[in-house]
Design goal:
This protein is mainly beta and 406 residues long. The protein has helices spanning 365-376, 385-390, 395-401, and strands at residues 23-24, 40-43, 47-51, 80-84, 89-93, 95-97, 107-111, 114-118, 133-137, 143-144, 146-147, 151-152, 162-166, 169-176, 181-189, 194-199, 215-219, 222-226, 240-244, 249-253, 274-280, 283-289, 301-305, 310-313, 327-330, 335-339, 342-345, 348-351, 355-359. The protein has a single domain, classed as Kelch-type beta propeller (Neuraminidase, 6 Propeller). The two termini are 35 Å apart.
Length: 406
Amino acid sequence: MLHFDFGVTPSKTDYVFEPFKITEVKYRSSESPRPRSGHRIVCDDVNIYCFGGYNPTMPLTNIEIENPTWTPARPLFKELWSFSIATRKWKQHKVIENMPEELASNAMCMNGKYLMIFGGTGAPFGNRCSNDVIVWRTCNGDAKLKILDVQGTVPPGQYGQSVLCHDGYFYTIGGTNGYAYNCDIYRLDLRTMVWEPVFVGTGEEGEPLGRYRHEVARIKDKLYIIGGGTGEWAYELMELPMFDLKTKTWTILIPKADNTSKYTVAPLPRKCHSAVQIDTPNGSQVFVAGGSDVHYVFKDIWRLDLSDLQWTLMRKTVLPHPLYFHSSTVTSYGCMYVFGGIEPKDNDTDRNNTMYKVWLCIPSLTEICWEALLNFHPNLDQVDRKTLLHIGVPIHLVNRLHTPMS
């Protein structure tokens, strides 16, 4: 084991790199987000960001009665948190401008240094929905959320949609107002701030069924819709609606089941799952975790190879508990993080604030060494930037501990 004498006591814990194994992330901060569901997380390789969420069963003994971020009557979290991947410490950002009331089942993505938040519902659910696009430039200080001043054909207020940024546009796909479900697609031109409809369903044959709490993957100009459902139904993962942004047409694709073992298996229908996408030398892969088919809650994880539409059950990669209404994100180097959600327990449900991580691929040796160094020296953030650079820690890794001034 390497030992650097810079005043930090090394950890006695051995380090073994174990790809495809789910482990719980042990927090090193005194504060962390309270248990929740309906929140969203995204990441930028340095931090994981968590926004909003819902918990109607929080024990009153754990609540500051005067805390403006949560009240028993309106159990929605007016909170924005960041989690340093390197230090494993949470930080709550005080939102001083434009915190919305609609904080459940928002959609969120990252666009460069910006969080982009859209939609969501507040109390009472369904009766209050948002169609604001809210952005935050990530920083260490307080959060000044900005509501974009937009024009054009603005999509209706709803929740449970999916969003993504591509080629200068911000897309929203599907969602519900609590009564009607759609698979409509709108996009916002981030240069002109003008909304326009890309596809609005008319009920014709060949259109996908309306849905919420689905996930979306993208390859070039093709969007793949993964699961989702309505209040009563969950949709098949063995049927993938694909939308071509160039031709503006839908195609229903039929992926292949997993036949790598004695019995052929296929993912069951589900909604309220999570999905992340990584790019590999063999093409793009999507990893679907957990979810519910209304009757059952799943803890399985499936891989979908988009190049040949092949499903594979990750037999050694299984969530510790069945989970739904959670959220996941993945770093550019292939490490997935899963946070929060609902676990069914003894005919009841229990929300959590646990984070899990799993390597979905074999990363570079640099990333493996960095994980080992952080394992042996968990207080590395207490070492100043100059010293870390002097002993040879690459600057892009030092920047994960000490954010450079922008």
